[in-house]
Queue: 2 jobs
Job 1
Amino acid sequence: MSFESTEFAKTYEPSQVEARLRSYWDEHAFFKATRDPSREPYTIVIPPPNITSDLHMGHMLNNTVQDVLIRWNRALGKVSCWIPGTDHASIATEAQVTKALAAKGIDKRAIGREAFLEHAWEWKRDVGGRIVNVLKTLGISCDWSREAFTLSPDYSRAVLSAFVQLYNEGYVYRGTRLVNWCPFSQSVISDEEVDNEERAGHFWHIHYKVEGDPARSLVVATTRPETLFGDLAVAVHPDDERYRDLIGKKVIVPVANRAVPVIADTAVEKDFGTGCLKVTPSHDPTDFEIGARHKLGHLNIMNKDASLNDKVPLAYQGLSREAAREKVVAELKETGLLEKAEPMRHVVGISERGKVPIEYYLSEQWYVRMEDFAKLAHDATRSKELTIVPAYWEKTWEHWLTNIKDWCVSRQLWWGHRIPAYTCAKGHLTVSVDAPSACKECGDTQLSQDPDVLDTWASSWLWPFAVHNSANPTAEQKADLDYFYPTDVIVTGPDIIFFWIARMVMAGRHFRGKTPFHHVYFTGLVRDKQGRKMSKSLGNFPDTFKIIEKYGTDALRFSLVNQLVTGQDIKWDENSCEIGKTFANKLWNASRFLVMAAELVGVDPSKVSVDKLDWNQSDPVLAWILTEYKQVLSRSFKAIESYEFSDYSKATYEFVWMRLCDWFVELIKPRIYGEATGTPESKATVTVALQVLEGGLRLLHPLMPYVTEEIWQRMGGSTRVGQSVGLQALVLAPQGKADEAALAEMDVIRSIVTGVRKIRGDFSIHPGETLQVVVDAPAGRLERFLVVLEALAKVKVGYASKKPSRAASLAAGDVRYFVVLPETVDVEAERGKIAKKLEKVEGNIRLVEGKLSSDSFTKGAPEHVVEGARSQLAQNLLEKSLLEETLSALG
């Protein structure tokens, strides 16, 4: 494709541009990263989205930020390599596929492992394809030839190789422990995959009769009466005088009719409940520890789906937890062993993926010893090899690493990396990347592989280097790994600081000897305008494609980054995209004007480049815009280097909109039209204008790639085929003192022009009528920009310290000035009108303030009504301020 025409449409239409530009970028492989020893690499590996569902606004923000960094550093001349990919997300994807199959009447267990995996791969092709499509639509400049997937053959070999290496090094072992069990997925899950929710429940107070003394009993309060079948003791505090004489005796577990010992343990809280604790080692973490101290053994009463197993009375076997609870309570009531049921609220652990209460379940699992790995992660931040932004997350980092537990890496699932452990009939274990042909100890050829798969994070912790086929690289891949690893930054949310970030640091330092990235940048969460988490169930989950179709991709990108303040969540509202859409059109229209102006005065836009800009300009208007340009360059560089992305977006927005489009274009119009057309001054002015515009396009391109590319190409026409604005150098202005005087004087000029225009509006003065402005300053104070001021404001300027009669008094910075009102303005009548308006507005303010000061209104009225009142108050206060300003101007 080519851009042979420099003609601009009247308005910018993203829908007619974006797909074409993506094809153009792909056609010329602008984003393909090729090693170059003479250039510095800049590498990012994308946090691979889970192939569980469509992407949300958090993904849009995260990937826009990464794209800003990649495009920025590409423009600095570095070899920018952004590696894309997706995560198989073992437990989450399996849950989704299982639900999808169930909706079709297909049972996962009935079809078996291999058939289920075929469905899972089909899911991956569908959802994974949609994810990539959304990312490409967002305009992100990944090297798509390097796209990775955590369950691809090459990546899988890296995962299995790491597991085998850790096993051989003594870090991986099998152990029987109490785990978090998800009955829905029938798999162990990590602590981080458990959501704690407060729910209504009961404390059931149950009598445990003392063996041999049925007149006496211990009363145990529990929220889980159905687990009494697994009781192996009742514990009391050794210093509790109420029960000291019963320590060592036995009580009868009701319904189960088993005798268990009364034991003393300091873990029991004397003042909580009855001071008696039923000890169920196989189904509660505290009880597990108590049971271990007293060598009670274990009694698991649950099946994998959390129904009761064959270790309970026949009448209870196969019942769900909830049904068993009801039946136990009913039987306790019948036998008189239930003292009372006390309503209460308590915290229940809920499986993040399965959305059901977890069970504490005794199970043999694979673990990784974490003590040495925690030291590796500690050292990365303490040595400053790794910097976390915002820095306050380092305290959380330190706390978690200090209190780390061994990592359970096995999952009872089918979708994932199957654990490479093989057992023969005699129980000998062989751990090998490739399936062994025979047992290494006895030669048995009948080996069975462990049915479990690895925790998702036990694959993605290798992501920064496994994307290069690190286990079995070609010479090319090895060279890439040496050149592009370690990466520069990882951009993600703080919710996975332990799941993923810490573990990647551990893996990078252990397997590669280097911290995998230099910086971690944590974005905030993207919430709705009410501060709620976005979810489909709340109806506040926006459709990305509809947003892009309505506003354009650049507008969406701008709306997200412009609100991104380090360490803060974003309250995102679709209306914020309107700012970005209007901004893109403003830039488009200014560019259209300047290209047309270039044709008018005889300047070829295709031959104009900011690289040829002469920074030393004696012309005050040109000196001013170059000083503004120098400042926005400096501010933008500092913002990107410090990860202050909203500072970058605001700096470019203010420069392009408020300086370049609003003022500079207006300032130079008199030099373009009429007698000035074609003069050396007009050509020099338009040339500088196009150079600053081209520099502005380069500067803004990382954030708004589509509109900047389209404008840049149209400025160059056919001469820029095969080129991209994103490959043009971002260069700081030459060192030297800024023209502070030009800035200060121009600030005064802009303020006076704005003030005069407001006076015209307030008093209905025709815009074509020339007004007299008297400046209270030494004669010549504004001489440098006098012609500009008189032309823009349609005024004649004089100097005097005394206020003329019939004049409005205003101030521009430290300069006081007066606008003489024409005879058509009745000053006294205008004063009266303004006073009446002010009185009405002040009444409205009192009314709304009264509402907002009432708790019954702020807490009782719907949130949108309260928010509306606050908005009304803000508008009224602004109106009051403006009216007071106008009244004050009249003296």
Job 2
Amino acid sequence: MFGQYKIFFIIFLCSFSSLAYEIALTRIFSISLWYHFAFMIISIAMLGIGASGTVLSLYPGLKNPSNTGIYTLCVGAGIFLSYLITNQIPFDPVKLSWSKIQILFIGIYYIMLSIPFFFTGLIVATAFASFKDKPAMIYGADLIGAGMGSMGFLYLMTLAAPENAVLIFSSTALLATLISGGKKLKTISVFFLLLNLAFFIINPSFINLNISPYKGLNTALKYPGAEHLETYYSPYSRIDTFKSPHVRFAPGLSLSYLDPLPEQVGFSVDGGEINAITYSGEQTSLKFLKYLPSALPYEIGNPPEFQHTPLWKRDNPPESSFSEDGLEENSKEEIGGFSMRKGDVLIVDPKGGLQILVAQFYNFSNIYRIESNPLLIKVINKDFSEFSGGIYSANTMAGIGRAWLKNIGEEFDIIDIPLTGASPSGTFGISEDYRFTVEAFKEYINHLKNDGILSINLFILPPPRTELRILNTAVTAMEELGIKDAEKHVAAIRSWGTVCILIKKSVFSSDEIEIIKKFSENLWFDLVYYPGIGEDETNIYVKMPSNDYFHSFTNILYHDKRMEFIDSYIFDIRPVRDDKPFFNYYLKLKNIREIYSIMGRKWQFFIEEGYILPVAFIQVFFLSLILIFLPAFSRNKTINTPFSKGETVGFGRRKWLFLPYFAFLGTGFMFVEVSMVHKMIMPLENPSYALATVLTSVLISSGTGSFLSYKFQYLRSHFTPLLISFFVIIYSIFLSGVSDMISQHSIFVRIFLVCLILSPPGLLMGIPFPLGIKILSEKNELLIPWAWAINGCFSVLAPILTIMIAMAFGFKTVFWLGAFSYLMAFIFLRNSYKNYG
């Protein structure tokens, strides 16, 4: 007889490996394909867990615990083989529009990637059915293993590439086979362990990620003379550095500039987003910086001595004196015969540091940098510090700019937010962005000096939408701060490819407006808006067929025209708030046909905008329906095995009416957990930290609660789901405020506090599921696999629904729906007590 207590450790190992593999796949497909297709593929693959319950319902003989060794081998080998095979399949979503075989490839992806999750589900469901008196211990081992898997992935990504981490997760599951398998299974397990070790050491080329040839990195490397330099990994990104003629990084550079650019080294983030590091060793080669639209706020902030001779008219600007740390020497009062500007500049997400060089070029003395990608700071400081002029060597922080601002009292002359890479690219519509919500703009404006300027630079991606939402959100923030004449606080210019939007805390003076006009005129930039502008002053140098920018900005800035314009505009450009932080989602359902026509009748645009969500949901929904209702076909079917005891399962008994309880538990758990992840992004300042911390906290505390419910009977109360519902409502109200309080501490203290705060509801959330399994084991044990299938399917549907609902109504609504789900679970559980005792 298979040892009862070994099963808990086996479940722990397999759940650890499966959860870590799931997160690893997210990183792998974000690099090799795109994040939105990773989202869809993994959602389908995770249905493997629900499918395991369906299969056991149809074939109860498979729940023999002696099969556990085979199942663990299939988990370990399945992780290894599913990655290896899918990495060799030439699936590329870009080819879907002309290559129908891609549909077959994506089907193979679904099947192969679901294998390890299917067998992990078989192990847990078999344990529930075989060890009926210990469901709390089994569920606790499952959750704690998954929670540790999240933490394990985060740690391993600091040491190894994702493909190498897959080998480690595969080996972890194979260790379970050494515990549970017979001699033959152990031999096979050792073979795969040695194979994993060999691949880890040798690192053959076929296990390296195959990145889509249509992503930015591979496109840049196709140019003659291109050279790949190095690859770097972290839990949240992969950075590749390279040299290529493709990288000519000077966003919106004036057409009047004809000289060559200085040497630049390109880098990509996750194989897609392209940016560049500029060589700053020769100051004379940096004169192109004054020809950028993004130089405008620094022109306005220039001291009077500079303004007598505008920089665009000076061929030899004063050279900055750089200290060893890469910052300007601010101990000198005179540089090149001019007084030095004692200015404070904050640059948010400077990436390759071009705007840092602009600020240094204009002799601003106190330049602060806050970059959201810590790996990028590390890469530039380690390998490109001298090349870049030490752009990240001092006054540098890693994190989200607005979160850092919340904890300081300093004010700035300029807050500069560059949104330009080496080439224009859209952003996935369902990805949250807390940098551009109303609350974020309030933070930026509050940290400007009285005459301070907020500068935002971005590529022109027609038709206009990003710039209009930025303007609309900023204006809303200003009005909520008491600035009622927003039209006097905004200016904007555009080049052939970029837009520069300036937001000033005070009104623009006549002198500042004159600088804007002269700057644009001399560098052939088009004026978009300034206080008092006339339409005849716009759309002159880079003439567009219609003057949309001028009319759009004017309509948004003047309150009496704004709402009518927003309602009639083809895209959704309403202000974005923290509760619905999906800044890059612009679609209006009523305008789908018109948008489809404007975007060149290309369906790919809708996928990038976020319509992958309903596509994924429809697929998961119909597959879930099949998996959930297939066991109904075993109606009144009697199974005689050592584990079924000749009982009848199906619709012939009323006890199946209890099964919706497990659907509400799966839905409620995921609604709450996913919402918590998104709410913790701000205090932890990194999505990867938020995901790992919340998963670790909630899953381990839930597993602990499950263990405790096994020992203490009073915890197994039918009121527990009702108590969870109450907790969720309380957390939905106060969690944002608590997040603001903990954001003042160091990152390690914040992680500890988040774990502490989320543990109370987590402890309770681990109790209802094993309680329901216990009831089924006493009344009709053959329904246990069916309950597992239902819970698994709804646990996959719920995360997709979470994002869809949050995009429409906000995360607070998702919390409330989670509370409602637990309330419904309480009702079903209470009725089961009445019906079954």
